[in-house]
Every structure is written in structure tokens, then in C-alpha cells.
Amino acid sequence: MSGSQAWGFTDDRGTEPGADRVPRRVIAYVRAGAALCDLGVTPVAVYGSGHDGEVLDPAKEGGLRSAAVTYLGPGRSLDEGLLRELRPDLIVDVTYDGKGPYALDEAVADRLGVPLVALSVGSELTLGAILERFGALAVSLGASPDTGTAGTAGTAGTGSGSLPAAEAAVREAVARGGLSVLALSGAGPEQVHLARPQAWPELARLAELGVRLLEPGPGAGANWLTADWGHAVELRPGLVLFDERAHATAPDGALPGVRLAAWNPETPPSPAAYARFFRELAGALTG
Fold it and tell me: What is d(CA 235, CA 255) in angstroms, rounded to the nearest whole number?
């Protein structure tokens, strides 16, 4: 970024987009957009991933619907004419590999002449680092510095709704009971994807807080082990975190006698969103 530019931000691919003014009309991948909305930057519109349909998934909407943010449908099939009409001056996506945006073809942003920022949500960063990066982006776009950092791990936020308070509630819940926890995503009546805890920053953080997360066992897949529902039963979880996104299959009767709690593997990377998830988990662990 040169000194003549009023705005610049280095994303998690090492890309350094800049502009002669702070972007005000942001279009974002729904997960990133929901996080920015929590942090005080309301997008003009959001788009989905290849998992998403033409209607915004309720599990992913966060505060987007209440903020009247337009949902444009899946990112790979966006109407570029409509995007031009929206006059974006920044596109925000996420990246899992540190190389390319997850939900939008970068060539679309190039054709529009709009800078694209992609922030990492993969396992190479801790949950705290991910939240700090989204907070820094929000502050660069005009959010209050307090909004951008309040309530993240290691900060001074200690109110009942803060992330540190929610983490304390998880620790207390663990101390009261020793439930083993299995995180999974249903893939139909015959198959289920079982999460490898260290591949998911929020699950890795829960393990640091003392939650006994079950490993699914050896096999192919860096993030998930794909198996049948019987394998999930054999792991004998006391609590199952099930993927609540619209494309995932609910456990229904596949796990008799097992306590269930919802998990969104695409929780918006904001302290408020993870505080809600951790508080709900603390309740499920003690309920």
C-alpha cells in the first residue's frame, strides 16, 4: 500500500488490496458478512457457498436478516450484472488453504475491478487469532476498536455475554461432569462425517478448555472421517454436536440415548457468535 491510499489491508493470502478511501459498500461471503455485522460493519449483500441454495440458511444468518442484508445466492453462480448494480467497493471471503477465496471465483472480483480480501478460518490459526483478524478488518472498515476486539480470548471483556465469560462457563461445566463429545455432520441415512477436533479451531479451543472431544479414528480425510452412523454409536459419546446447517442430515433416531446440541461449522468469526455457541454448549454439558 502506498502512502497516497486512504485504506489498505493485508489479507491471509499475503494480498495487499488498497483503495483511495475506506470501502463502504461491502459484499461478503455469508460467514464473513455475519461476522462483520456482529462487529459493526453491515454488508450491502452476502453470498453463499456451494453448500447453499437460493434461500439464506437460517443456521448461517446470524444478524444478517435482522439487519436486512440482501442474500444473493451461491457465490459460484452469482449474476455479475447484479453485482455491478450493487456497486461494491470491497468483497470479503474466507480461505481454508491460504491461497484462494472459498466461495467466490476471484476472477469475478477481477472483472468487476473490486478488491477482494480473504481471511483464514482454517486450522493453521487458533480461534483467538481468527477472531483478531476479523476484528482488525472490521476496525479498518470503520468499526470501533472496542467492537473489533472486545470479548476475544485474552482481552478485558468479562461481562456475562463476553467470550471469556462463555469460556469460563464451559470450564465450569466440564468440572461438573465428564461427558465425552463427538462433533459430526450427517451426510444422509447411511453416512456421517465425524470431525477431527484439531482440524476445527473452535473444537481445538474447546479441548483447551477441558472438553473431552472424541477422535473418530484413522482413515482418509483431514477434517472429517466419513463412516456409517454405527461407527458414531461405537465411539460411545455422551454428547453429540451435530451440524445444524441446512444441507446436513439431522441425527434423528440414529443416536439413541445420546444428548444432542447444535453446532454450526461455519459459525461467524466474531466473539459474540462464539460466545453464544460456547454458552449453549456449557448448558448442554450440564443439562
Answer: 11
CA gap 134, 120 in Å, rounded: 9
The pTM of this model reads 0.92
Provide CB contacts within 8 A for 14, sequence distance 6+. Answer: none
CB-CB contact of 155 with 149 (8 Å): yes
Q: Give pLDDT tens digits for 17-60.
A: 989 999 999 999 999 999 999 999 999 999 999 999 999 999 99
Angle subtended by helix axes 127-140 and 271-286, to nearest 10: 150
3-state secondary structure of 18: strand
Which secondary structure element, helix H or strand E, spans residue 208, and what is its range? Answer: helix 201-208
The 10s digit of each residue's pLDDT in 58-80 is 999 999 999 999 999 999 889 99
CA terminus-to-terminus distance, the chain:
52
